[in-house]
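user: can you give me the structure for this one chain? tokens are fine.
assistant: on it. calling the predictor now.
[tool input]
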Amino acid sequence: MATLIRSKLSNKLSNAATVVSNKSQAKVSGMFARMGFQAATDEEGLGFAACDDLDYDHRQGMQMDILTSDEMGGEGSGDGGMLEGDSHYQRDGTGPPSSASKDQGLTNEMAEVRPKITAWEAGWNVTNAIQGMFVLGLPYAILHGGYLGLFLIIFAAVVCCYTGKILIACLYEEDEDGQLVRVRDSYVDIANACCAPRFPSLGGHIVNVAQIIELVMTCILYVVVSGNLMYNSFPNMPISQKSWAIIATAALLPCAFLKNLKAVSKFSLLCTMAHFVINILVIAYCLSRARDWAWDKVKFYIDVKKFPISIGIIVFSYTSQIFLPSLEGNMQKPSEFHCMMNWTHIAACILKGLFALVAYLTWADETKEVITDNLPSTIRAVVNLFLVAKALLSYPLPFFAAVEVLEKSFFQDGGRAIFPDCYGGDGRLKSWGLSLRCILVVFTLLMAIYVPHFALLMGLTGSLTGAGLCFLLPSLFHLKLLWRKLLWHQVFFDVAIFVIGGICSISGFIHSMEGLIEAFKYNLED
């Protein structure tokens, strides 16, 4: 009996000493951070407060933990195992809390069950994003830019790969041991950290609106393209372009059942395969006419009036930054992210440059805005069918990303969510949540059918949201959050990208506005 009492007293004293030590360390670290001796962000401040909360929970559950260990007959088990685990949890956040609530435990269990994706699956998703429908306009960019257009294809790949990496770097902070720890989960968290403490949620709201506009409009564009391609492939059939769009949307309704990025990755793989088939068909036809290639037509000149449009085509064909935080967070090995970004962008650069040059050499000055319009009718019909498949297989990625943004903003934002959680306790999507997803699919159809001049409107908004999310904001956030750790050449790159992105955004906005005004003035069709 005396031994048991001494053991309990020893445990209490040891635990109390550890609690006081951890609490004092947290307060001292917070004080020094606020004095400016190290960069303090909102997340670090929350970490200091969380440490106090954990200490309180630990004190409340200390007696219960000791009693439980005694009941299990392990007098020696409470000596060091539990104490070491609690200390590890409080400092690093990797161990399980001793007194977690049932709801928190269920949430953590659901998060662990969610399947992760491999580096290859993440690569298929990135390839899906950067090998989009814009590729068909790259030969037209060579028409107005010559060799400068080819250089821009390479330069845009380097810049977009770099901005994707620095955006992910903003998700991490160094802990007390100098190890990188992921303290933010999304683009919105990065924006909020940059706008704190004066406007802690303003940046997140702006990024949320931009993301939703960009993602939903991308989905709508795929519906528009599908209807247009099917109508042009079968012009003799008594089916209008709007009817084809409705048929395409019916095929897209199963997207409402998507649960995770692993399922989306399968569609992205199929989309990439369709893209390779399109490239092979077009390049094979061009190689069959290699004797007539017009090498003398490729020059070092630019068309001042039309080259800005080519810049937009090339630059925005590489944009994938909006998907990257979610992809990197769902990877089995996040350390492979940089390698994945390198090989996807190198492959895209080679394929795009080869495709654009070979196609332009084949048709030279007769190159049209969409290269498939230059193909003979028989080959064009086959290529158009693969393009429709590519558009439909591309739809799930932006749709799933848009659903994630909407759910986190309105249904899963902790206690600040406007609406109740759309997932049940077992992690399954509720019926009304599924209905909302179906409504979003139908909404993309209605926008594709009834909004006039949608392609021009897409260019207008894309010039603002696309350039902002892919160039302006990543470089700005990188400078803001990691300023003290950046080398001079990194600062130079960030500032240069911000300036170039701003010029591209303003130029694209002006040209899109001119196109919209002309279309409405002369009542032109899309």
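assistant: here you go. Strands lie at 172-174, 180-182. DSSP finds 19 helices and two strands in the chain.
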